[in-house]
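Newbie here. two chains, one complex. Structure please?
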Amino acid sequence: MGFKHKDIIGLQGLSREEIQLLLDTAENMKEISGRDIKKVPTLRGKTVVNLFFEASTRTRTSFEIAAKRLSADTINISASTSSVTKGETLSDTARNILAMKPDIIVMRHAASGAHHYLAQRVSCSVINAGDGAHEHPSQGLLDMLTMRQKFGTLDGLTVAIVGDITHSRVARSDIFGLTTMGASVRLAGPPTMMPPGIERLGNVTVCTDMREAIKGADVVMMLRIQLERQGKTLLPTLREYSRYYGLNPENLKLAKPGAMVMHPGPINRGVELSSYVADGDQSAILTQVENGVAVRMSMLYHVSGGELPTE
Amino acid sequence: MAEEKTTILDGAGVKRALTRIAHEILERNKGVEDLVLVGIRTGGVHLARELSARLEEIEGAKVPVGEVDITLYRDDFKGQAPHLPVGKTDIPFVIEKTKVVLVDDVLFTGRTIRAAMDAIMDHGRPDCIQLAVLIDRGHRELPIRADFVGRNVPTSMKEKIVVLFDADSRPTEVVLEK
C-alpha cells in the first residue's frame, strides 16, 4: 500500500489508510528535525515552488523548512511581489512557473477550488496550503498528528471545533480527516458563522451553545476570528463573541479532565482564547507548529512518489 | 511456479554464527569501549539486539543498539511509485567518536549499506564504521565489503535469501528461495 496521488488538494476523498500513512511517515520524520544536521537527501534536485496568493508566515515557512530538510530547492513567490498584481491570470502564472520545471507547487489561494483548477493544468504535483474556505489539508494532518500523539488513536475521540466554521478551511479539513479516522466532531459558533447542512459531512453534530459542544470533549479546537475579514458584519461585538464563544479556564472545565486545547494560530488573545488557556498546561498550540514541519515533509515526500501522468 | 526452498542456516547455525561474530567484534575492537551497534531496519535491528546480548554475556558490559531506516537515503527513488513508507530511525546515543558496527541481515548489492552509512554520518562523525552481516550473497554493485560475515552464500540473481524471525524477533532460520 502506498500513496498514489500526484496532488493533495484536500483530505476529503483520502482513505483511512492514506491518512494513516501520511501521519506515520510524519511521525518517523520528526526525528530529522532533532538532529545536528537537519537534512536528508531524499528530494535532492527537486524544485518546490511556494506560490502564495494570500499572506502567510507560519504555513509558508513551515513548508519551506520541510522542503529544505528533504534537500529540495525552494522558491517563494508571493502575490504582492509577483505579476499577479499586474493582472496575470492564475492559468498564465502557472504556465510560466511550469516553464521553469518545478516538481511540486505548494499554493495558497483565496479562491476555493483554485488548486483543483491548477492541478488539472500542470504536470507537476500540487499541494494545497489553503484555498478560500475549502480546505487546508496540512493543518488538518498536523492537528490529527498532535491528537494521535496524545491519545494514541483518533478512533472514538470527541473533538469540539468552536468559532467561525463558515469561513474556516481548517475546520473543513479537520472534519474530513477526523471523521474518516473514526472521531466524532461537534461544531459550535454563532449562527451567522455556521454553514447550513454542515452536519451532512459525516459524524458531525452542530451545537448552538458552546458549552454543549465542549462538554466531555477530548479536544477543544478554537478557530481564529478573522477580524480583518468577517469580524465586522457577522458579529455584534468582540466582547459578546468572547463571552459566548471564547474559551477560558472556567468553561474548559466542562471538557474531559486534561482535554487538549488547540488553535491553528495566529491567536486573538482575549477573543477566542484567554491567555490563561493559550499558555496553560492543556494547550498543544506549539506542538501543533512543531508537528507542522514533519507533516509537510511527509506530504512532499509522498506526492513526489505519486503517479505522474504519462504523456 | 513452484518455489524451491533450501535451508542455509537453521536456528542453531544462526546462533553459532552470531556468537562467532560477537567474538570477532571483540577481538577486532579489543573490548566494548566506545562500541555501538546500529541495525538496519528491520532484520538488521533484530540481529543487532542479538549481538548486543551476546557481547554482554561475553564481556559483561552493555553495548548500545540504535536503529536506522534507510528509506530516505535510497538511490532508486526514480523507479518507485508510490514511495515506500518511512520507518523509524532511532539512534539514542551520540555517534561522535564511537566505533559503529553496522548490522544487516543480508549483504547483496551494497546499496543499502551505502545509504545506511550516509544516514549514520548525518548523525555525527564516528571514529570508524564496521559492517557485520549474517549472510553475504555476493553481486556487489559498490565497493563495499563486510568485516564480519556469518556465512558466504554464492547465489544467482534470480534467487532470494530470506532470514526468518520468530514472534519475539529472534532469528530462526535462513532460507534460499529459487
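Moderator note: The longest helix of chain A spans residues 285-303. Chain A touches chain B through 27 residues (CB under 8 Å). Thread marked as resolved.
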